Structures are given as structure tokens and as C-alpha cells.
Amino acid sequence: MTTNAITTNANAVLRSATVTRRLPLRYSCAAAGSLWGLAASRPAYAQPSANPLRILCSGPAGSIPDIVARRVAEQLTRQHPQGAIVDNRPGAAGQIAVNALKAAVPDGATILLAQGAVATVYPYLYAKLAYDPIIDLQPVSMAGEMTLALAVGPAVPSSVTNIQELY
After folding, report:
1. What is the pLDDT of residues 121-164, one digit of tens each?
2. Helices (H), the chain
């Protein structure tokens, strides 16, 4: 092999090494440059409502959903100067509260606190609903968990061991 061929091969190897070493740097610079545009832009925030935040509760006053809604309202009142109120709309297994949410002004100041069945079970349980849970509802968060229990009085004999025996 001649000296000229060795030099040409060495230059090619050095060029490829330089390209592969600098390529990540180029990509990093390009990514940083494109992200700069995002960092320099101002985020778009929704304008807060001048009215208090409204929590529609599907349970009556004093129920578990109402207690949870009032705790959420306490926290929201600490963060929002306009405050938060709980609007109880019990009845029709939560559908009255959902309809009130659907009729509310879509300004983000009204939220619904209801059992999950409103969006998951009722579409299969009821033939006609006044709302479409996929279109009309947007889940935000789970606010609580509730366990149901059955208690009986002392007049029930101790031989009763399940619900069917109560009938």
C-alpha cells in the first residue's frame, strides 16, 4: 500500500470519527434551539371566572359525596379568591346533577362530584340518558373511595349469614 493510500484512508477515518462525534452535538443544539421557542412563548391560561367555583354534588346534604365535596370546596377556597360553593342536586341516581352540569356555562367554573357509575354503568343500565358520558363528561380525578356495609339490628337471628336469608 502506498503512502498516499494510507493517508487517504486515515483522513476518511478521521472525518467519519469527527462526524460521529459531532453529530450528537448538532442534534443537541438543534433540539435546544427548537425548545427555546417554546420557552420564550407565553403559556395560554384560561381567564378565571369572577363567580365562585361551583361543585355540583349528586348526593343530598350530609351524604358521603356531600362531605367529600365540602372538603374539596374548602381546599379550592384557599386557592381561589372567589371561593367555592357546593350545590347539592340529589335524585335520579345522579342524573339531575349531570344535567345541571351539562346546562352550566362552559367556563370551567362548574365541576361535578358524582359516583363513577354516572359515566361507566348508567349508559348500560338505562335505555335513554339525557347525556352522553363520552361527549358531555370529562373525568378529572378520583376524589374519594367509599365502602358499603350492611348492618342489622339485634332482632335479626344469628343464624342469618347472608343477604338472601334476610328475605
Report:
1. 999 988 888 999 989 998 888 888 877 788 889 999 989 988 88
2. 3-40, 64-79, 95-103, 117-120, 122-125, 133-136
Instruction: Determine phi and psi for 145, rounding to 5 degrees.
Output: -135, 140
The DSSP element (H or E) to which 151 belongs, if any, is none
> Does 58 reside within a domain?
yes
Q: Do 116 and 65 touch, CB atoms closer than 8 A?
A: no
Higher pLDDT, 90 or 10: 90
57 alpha-carbon distance from chain centroid: 17
Are 67 and 127 found together in one domain? yes
Domain that residue 122 falls in: 53-136
pLDDT, residue 96, reads 95
Q: pTM for the whole thing?
A: 0.62
Neighbours of 55 (CB within 10 A): 23
Q: Is residue 166 part of a domain?
A: no
